């Protein structure tokens, strides 16, 4: 079993939702990224999504766009992302790591080299924003061999027929994008989300994580009541930027406290599914 | 003169938008529904006699088609080589070929009932063409434009504003066309329910490369007929500039099966492709994925998209329409480049010799046509797509002459 599958199964048995923070690798630098990963796990994160910087992040709002630009100022590459994961694995063998980004860096690296390097580093899953399952056949076959989970997004505009096609290819968890828009958009509507999730559960047994529009502990708790996982990204990335220039310890303590607050609120949420 | 038509060029793209390994639909999930819907709408309408009639009527009475095929006898004489014919897309309403496509896509917007259109623009020609059709159909219009392009294309920015469009400056990334396209995509995912994205070039996710090509292919159909009327023959060569490649594919498409016709796409060589400061992905780039399709791109060894440089804002793009990538690999079309300096010389020469001021984009095609005409020699016939007029570039050219207007 993959680390992500193991973690999510254990949480399900506990009737708790997974807390899945997203940060951009190399923002402000890879050493801080590594320190943040450990701090977030210590504060209650279950799976970590690491953003792979890209020059043209079409699906991201301003907060994550700027994080990409900051990381690219010192040329943070896929190789650097793998190196961060490899170092993380020296101290943490159990927390799932998902890398999230766009296809072109992977195309340029070459699928086989990419998958081999991801596996060697200890990557457990990947989300490629601009790679729908129809175009992913070649890559998916390689990921399967390496036991790296392809995770896909479902959105409010996804039709049932298309959702089924995606769910057939998706492993580990499915990421429900709670709003139409880019990352860092407005607050989600919890009523909408819970209805949509109930419908999705009739189509899949995969755990469902919800992201986009979750920026505080209250919303995280509301989502935890109806979903199997809560993804929080822009709020953390924004805070990391606000703290730029501070010692790494200050940044990790601040982000750790926010994760702990969310964890606590989520664990007090009463599961309604 | 003629040879067996090769039909493979008419069978692309496949149902999912692939031109061989290129094209496809590499888009975020929120857009998939809208792209499916657009594909379905287009597949239903493209053969609908009512739709075709409405499109053709607008092209005739609003755009002013057919545009002339002009035998540039003074230039031909001066160069002393092949006969040079200019397909005068610069004479279209709004001054470029871009309007052909915006008329088509605005009709699709009308049929899908979306009240708001958005567009990206580089030189501003597509933005102006979109603002124009939006004004005419009473649609809300937002145009995304790189902050640097806004600076060098002030005239078009003001034209768009006069037409009632809102021009939003894009300050992310390289502040040019690719970033404007990113921002338009972000707008679209946010307002997917009420917004139609009018993409200006033959790139983007399926079905855009196909529908832009289809709407622009009127250029080649007319040119073929006009050449036959004037000379009783096919041309020996076609030349068009290639940024995203919509005017080029518009001219080329009709002639693809006619393998006796040599086809040349001219990319922006900027300071020279050897300097790295250029916008010539087909000449020196490698395949990758950007803006929804797989195509030749300028990206660095890490897969980051590189900044481009061209004196012409409309060619300043690191990718290219996927059909051009396929035509390159198939060997059906040759892709070459000319430098900023060569394009500026061609701009001045056409202006002085024929009294036609080309857009700096089209001046790239003229610059290569000059070399080709001499190489091919007298008795051969070349059609150059004069894709747009040069008024919008007067400020750029004047600045190079150190003249303030």
What would you say this structure looks like, in words?
The complex is a heterodimer of chains A (273) and B (405). The longest helix of chain A has 20 residues. Chain A is α/β, with parallel strands linked by helices and 273 residues long. In chain A, helix 2 runs parallel beside helix 12, helix 9 packs parallel to helix 10 and helix 10 packs across helix 12. Chain A has a single domain, classed as Aldolase class I (TIM Barrel). Chain B has 405 residues and is of the alpha/beta class. Helix content of chain B is 44%, strand content 18%. Chain B contains 16 helices and 14 strands. In chain B, the strands form three sheets. Chain B has a six-stranded mixed sheet, sandwiched between helices. A four-stranded antiparallel sheet of chain B has the order 1-2-12-11. In chain B, helix 9 packs across helix 11. Chain B is globular and about 55 Å long.
Strand content of chain A: 5-15%
The CATH class of chain A turns out to be: Alpha Beta
Within the CATH hierarchy, at the fold level, what is the topology of chain A? TIM Barrel
Mean pLDDT score of chain A: 95
Give the overall silhouette of chain A: globular
Number of helices of chain B: 16
Domains counted in the coordinates of chain A: how many? 1
CATH architecture of chain A: Alpha-Beta Barrel
Tally of individual helices of chain A: 12
Whole-angstrom Rg of chain A: 17 Å
Oligomer: heterodimer
Query: What strand order characterises the main sheet of chain A?
Result: 5-4-3-2-1-9-8-7-6
Q: Please trace the helix and strand order of chain A, writing H or E for each element.
A: HEHEHHEHHEHEEHEHEHEHH
Share of helix of chain A, binned: 40-55%
Distance between the termini of chain A: 25 Å
């Amino acid at each position: 079993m993959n680390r992500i599958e193991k973690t999510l199964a254990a949480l399900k048995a506990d009737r708790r939702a997974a807390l899945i923070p997203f940060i951009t690798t190399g923002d402000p630098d890879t050493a801080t990224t590594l320190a943040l990963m450990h701090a977030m796990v210590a504060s209650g994160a279950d799976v970590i999504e690491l953003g792979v910087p890209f020059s043209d992040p079409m699906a991201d709002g301003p907060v994550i766009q700027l994080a990409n630009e900051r990381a690219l100022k010192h040329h943070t590459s896929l190789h650097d992302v793998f190196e961060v994961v490899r170092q993380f694995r020296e101290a943490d063998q159990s927390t799932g790591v998902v890398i999230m980004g766009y296809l072109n860096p992977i195309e340029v690296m070459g699928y086989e080299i990419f998958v081999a390097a991801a596996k060697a580093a200890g990557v457990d899953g990947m989300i490629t924003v601009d790679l729908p399952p129809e175009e992913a056949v070649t890559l998916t076959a390689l990921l399967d061999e390496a036991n790296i989970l392809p995770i896909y997004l479902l959105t409010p505009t996804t039709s049932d027929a298309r959702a089924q096609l995606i769910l057939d290819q998706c492993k580990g968890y499915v990421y429900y994008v709670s709003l139409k828009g880019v990352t860092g958009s407005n607050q989600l509507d919890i009523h909408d989300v819970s209805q949509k999730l109930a419908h999705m559960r009739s189509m899949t047994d995969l755990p469902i994580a919800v992201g986009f529009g979750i920026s505080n502990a209250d919303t995280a708790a509301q989502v935890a009541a109806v979903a199997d996982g809560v993804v929080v990204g822009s709020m953390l990335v924004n805070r990391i930027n606000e703290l730029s220039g501070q010692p790494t310890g200050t940044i990790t303590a601040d982000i750790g406290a926010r994760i702990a607050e969310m964890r606590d609120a989520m664990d007090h949420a009463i599961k309604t599914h | 003169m003629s040879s067996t038509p090769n039909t493979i060029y008419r069978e692309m793209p496949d149902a999912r938008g692939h031109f061989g390994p290129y094209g496809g639909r590499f888009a975020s999930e929120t857009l998939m529904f809208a792209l499916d819907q657009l594909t379905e709408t287009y597949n239903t309408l493209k053969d609908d006699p009512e739709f075709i009639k409405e499109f053709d009527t607008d092209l005739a009475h609003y755009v002013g088609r057919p545009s002339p095929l002009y035998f540039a006898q003074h230039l031909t004489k001066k160069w002393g080589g092949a006969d040079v014919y200019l397909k005068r897309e610069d004479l279209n309403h709004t001054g470029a070929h871009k309007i052909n496509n915006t008329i088509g896509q605005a009709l699709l917007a009308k049929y899908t009932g979306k009240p708001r259109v958005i567009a990206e623009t580089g030189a501003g020609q597509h933005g102006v063409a979109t603002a124009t059709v939006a004004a005419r159909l009473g649609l809300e219009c937002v145009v995304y434009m790189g902050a640097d392009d806004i600076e060098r294309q002030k005239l078009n920015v003001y034209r768009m504003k006069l037409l009632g469009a809102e021009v939003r400056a894009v300050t992310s990334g390289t502040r040019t066309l690719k970033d404007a396209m990113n921002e338009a995509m972000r707008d679209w995912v946010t307002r997917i329910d009420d917004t139609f994205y009018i993409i200006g070039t033959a790139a983007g996710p399926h079905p855009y490369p196909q529908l832009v090509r289809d709407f622009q292919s009127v250029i080649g159909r007319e040119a073929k007929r006009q050449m036959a009327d004037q000379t009783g023959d096919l041309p020996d060569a076609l030349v068009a500039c290639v940024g995203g490649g919509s005017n080029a594919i518009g001219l080329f498409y009709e002639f693809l099966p006619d393998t006796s016709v040599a086809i040349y796409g001219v990319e922006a060589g900027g300071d020279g492709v050897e300097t790295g400061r250029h916008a010539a992905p087909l000449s020196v780039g490698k395949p990758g994925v950007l803006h929804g399709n797989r195509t030749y791109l300028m990206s660095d060894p890490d897969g980051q998209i590189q900044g481009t440089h061209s004196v012409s804002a409309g060619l300043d793009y690191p990718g290219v329409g996927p059909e051009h990538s396929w035509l390159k690999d198939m060997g059906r079309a040759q892709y070459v480049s000319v430098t900023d300096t060569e394009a500026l010389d061609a701009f001045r020469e056409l202006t002085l010799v024929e009294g036609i001021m080309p857009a700096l984009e089209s001046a790239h095609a003229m610059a290569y046509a000059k070399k080709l005409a001499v190489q091919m020699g007298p008795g051969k016939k070349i059609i150059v797509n004069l894709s747009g007029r040069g008024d919008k570039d007067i400020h750029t050219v004047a600045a190079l002459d150190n003249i303030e207007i």
